[in-house]
Amino acid sequence: CETNDREKTKAIADAEARIEDLTTKIEELTASSARLSTEITGLEKEISQNQEALDKATAIRQKQLAEFNAEEKDLLESVSALKAAIVVLSKHHSSLVQMPRSHVMALAATVQSELQKHASMLQGVLTHSQRRVLAGFVQAPQDYFDAAPTFKQSYAPQSGEIFGILKQMRETFESNLSAAQKEELSNQKAYEDLKAAKEAEIAAGQAQLDSKTRELADTDEKNAQAKVDIEDTRSSLSADEQFLMVLKEKCSMTDKEWE
């Protein structure tokens, strides 16, 4: 009786101590699990926001690039067209040789096209008098390049003025092209810097997320095991308490019989 009593009393005390330890452990693990879940939610939101910002920046960059490519192509074509017009004009301007009608019409068409296409760009660049000269040339180009000797003297200053205006237009287009190209390089650099920063933030966030997800899984597994252990310990404690109660009754009866 005494041996069994002593052993079971110790087993009960050990079980109660273990239950107390496991209760504390479960509380700590539950709190850790809740904290990790909150942190994981925060990291997922942060990663999502960074990805969203990167996607938005990429979309803006693609739009910028498409606009630049269109502008660059347009300005290159305009510069090329004006260069060709200036070459044709300079040949006839210097030699005062009659310009073929087809060349005159093509030249007028180029001038008209560029004036219409880049009206806003040329605003404030060309003076009213220069615009009047170009308008007159576009309307009646043949009057500016007549083969008749009586027009020879007036031909040179008129063609010279147009020559100067076309050079001014070409320089304006080249200046705008250069500015657009510089802006494109700046935009590309700004995007690359932003992209690198956002990708680094996303990678760092993902690494933390992966680590905390593993930690949460480990915490939840330990918590689940602790809950199983505490239930087993409670069952064992209950059985030991029951056994001790029966033992004490039997021993009490045996003692009475001995008396």
If you had to describe this structure to a student in words, what would you say it looks like?
- By secondary structure, the chain is mostly helical.
- Helices cover 90% and strands 0% of the residues.
- The chain contains 5 helices and no strands.
- The relative contact order is 0.15.
**First CA to last CA: what distance?**
16 Å
Helix-and-strand structural type: mainly alpha
> Major sheet, described briefly?
none
Which oligomerization state do the chains in this entry correspond to?
Answer: single chain
Q: Count the strands?
A: 0
Radius of gyration, Cα only, in angstroms? 46 Å
Portion in strands: under 5%
Average predicted confidence as pLDDT = 88
N-to-C order of helices and strands: HHHHH
Helix fraction by DSSP (H/I, runs of at least 4): over 70%
**Tally of individual helices:** 5
Shape: rod-shaped
Which runs of at least 5 residues are low in confidence (pLDDT < 50)? Answer: 147-156
